[in-house]
Every structure is written in C-alpha cells, then in structure tokens.
Amino acid sequence: MAERDTIRVGSRVYLRNCVAGEPGCVVGFDSRGRAEVMWLDMPELGRTTFHAVDSLEIDAGFMVSQYGFEFGEMAA
C-alpha cells in the first residue's frame, strides 16, 4: 500500500471483497493490529467489528470537499 493509502483512524473503508452499501469508519485498532470499524448502516452487527487491515479497501470516492470545508492559504 502506498503511504497515502494507509488505513488510519478516520479512514472510510469497505471490506475488500464487499464494496457495497455505505463505507465504515475506522475508529481504532486493537492490540493485534486489527482495525475497529464502525458500520453506521449495519446496526445488526453491533455497530463495530474488527478486521485485518489488508482485508479493507479505502473509499476512493470520498473527498473532504464533500463536507464543504474550505481551507485558506497555508503557511510554509
């Protein structure tokens, strides 16, 4: 995985073999390195599940601009 594609807290993800529905959000990692993912559209799962990082796919369609954030000029 390229550095920019690193899964971290806050990443929106899908299961690699199940890219359907709404993406989940990584909310943490357990002591074994598995990602804890919150699935807001799957309440029957208890909202969070744990997955090996390599079984997840980052939501490539997500962009910060979807939230309407505006970033001004950044200092060097």
Note down, in words, how this protein is organized.
The protein is an all-beta fold and 76 residues long. It has a single domain, classed as SH3 type barrels. 0% of the residues lie in helices and 28% in strands. The protein contains no helices and five strands. A hairpin with a 5-residue loop joins β2 and β3. The model has no long low-confidence stretch (mean pLDDT 78). The chain has strands at 12-15, 24-29, 35-38, 48-51, 56-58. It has a five-stranded antiparallel beta sheet with strand order 4-3-2-1-5, with no helix packed on it.
Describe the structure concisely for a colleague:
With 76 residues, the protein is mainly beta.
Shape: globular
What structural class should be given to the helix and strand makeup?
Answer: mainly beta
Biggest sheet statistics: 5 strands, antiparallel
Q: Give the low-pLDDT segments.
A: none
| Secondary structure tally, helices | 0
State the distance separating the first and last CA atoms. Answer: 28 Å
CATH class: Mainly Beta
Going across the biggest sheet, name each strand in turn: 4-3-2-1-5
Q: In which range does the helix fraction lie? A: under 10%
